[in-house]
Amino acid sequence: MISSPSEPRLAKKDLEIAVDGFVNKPPSIDMVYDGLKTAPEQICKVNSWLNERGAIYFKPIGAVTCGGFGLAKAIKHTNQIELCAPSLELHDLCRELELKEGEPFLEFTDSLHAVQKIVDAYKNCRYLPATVQAGLRIPLYEGCAWEIRNIFFMGEGLQWLGSYVKVGDDEHFATVEQGGHRELPQKVLEATMGGIAQWYEVEQLAIAASCANPVYSLLRERCDRDIHTRLFSIDLAPDEDVPSLVEVQYGPSYEGAVDAFNHFDAEALDRTRDAFQWVAERDPTRFELR
Ligand SMILES: Nc1ncnc2c1ncn2[C@@H]1O[C@H](COP(=O)(O)OP(=O)(O)OP(=O)(O)O)[C@@H](O)[C@H]1O
Ligand SMILES: [Mg+2]
């Protein structure tokens, strides 16, 4: 996709702030590289999330990224913390922690000390603003992580195009770019949420729709001319049955939506095609309809 250098890039953080109060979010702490050790009270908090939820996630919060770039996860075992990352960053993180390649397990006797080491190592290997987030407790679907992607479009007004489930290819990350696939929400919800599947589907869409309004206002104000920002997504997943925010971003994959809707939602596919036809008619130089 094309983005215009003349317009300000909105960070994921700006979009996340815009949806404050509209959706449940996992607790998080923002980190900026300053060459200093992370404050002990912050380390205590991160340690308590690891103990309560079993996992924490590290994510960049600068310009909107996608495809799991810069993402990492730490999982707590009895005397070990395991590190996972879909991209090469794991290699840097392991090196920073002086761990052997292919064995990303940090042994510890003092859990707080280990958490301090990991948080600071992540900061050191990225040197960029990032956030550390408590893990959502999402029940696995066929052994894999998943989330519902709700796609919205800014045409004359705000429009919901459709929703589908992104299923990752492992238990850690629901990132389709790394080899996952897309599914019908009802199918995944029935398998993972049992009797509350239908309630959850309706509820999560209502929440996504209420988040879409402030995101729409922000995007209109800041990057109205950028075709890239006409499509945005609100990704939600359950945290103990509460629909919770995984990510809000603009410019999610158009091809991904077409691929998903092509398989199971003809109406959503029509809406998606119409939306992009609308753009193409107004500005054929900036978007090529496939
Ligand atoms: N707090 C969390 N709890 C549980 N899982 C999480 C959490 N944060 C992220 N994940 C998992 O990691 C995946 C990637 O995170 P996120 O969507 O924020 O990153 P991304 O770089 O934008 O990736 P992509 O653009 O491919 O979605 C999510 O799809 C989700 O499966
Ligand atoms: Mg994502």
Quick structural summary:
The chain is of the alpha+beta class. It is built from eight helices and eleven strands.
Order of helices and strands: HEHEEEHEHEEEEHHEEHH
**Rg result:** 19 Å
Percent of residues in helical segments? 25-40%
Query: Rough shape?
Result: globular
Main sheet strand line-up: 1-6-2-3-4-5
Report the span from N to C terminus: 13 Å
CATH architecture of the largest domain: 2-Layer Sandwich
Overall mean confidence score, pLDDT: 89
Total helical segments:
8
Q: Major β-sheet, in short?
A: 6 strands, antiparallel
Structural class: alpha+beta
Low-confidence stretches: 1-6
Number of strands: 11
- Spell out which ligands are present: adenosine-5'-triphosphate, magnesium ion
Beta content comes to 15-25%
In total, the number of domains comes to 2
Give structural notes.
The protein is α+β, with helices and mostly antiparallel strands. It has 2 domains: 28-134, no CATH class; 138-282, D-amino Acid Aminotransferase, Chain A, domain 1 (2-Layer Sandwich). The protein is 38% helix and 23% strand. The chain contains 8 helices and 11 strands. The strands form 2 sheets. The protein has a 6-stranded antiparallel beta sheet, with helices on one face. Strands 9-8-7-10-11 form a 5-stranded antiparallel beta sheet, with helices on both faces. Helix 3 (89-96) packs across helix 4 (111-126), helix 5 (185-193) packs across helix 6 (197-223) and helix 7 (254-264) packs antiparallel against helix 8 (266-282). The radius of gyration is 19 Å and the shape is globular. The structure holds adenosine-5'-triphosphate and magnesium ion. Adenosine-5'-triphosphate binds at residues 26, 57, 59, 65-69, 71, 133, 135-136, 138, 145, 147, 168, 173-175, 177, 246-247. Residues 235, 247 line the site of magnesium ion.
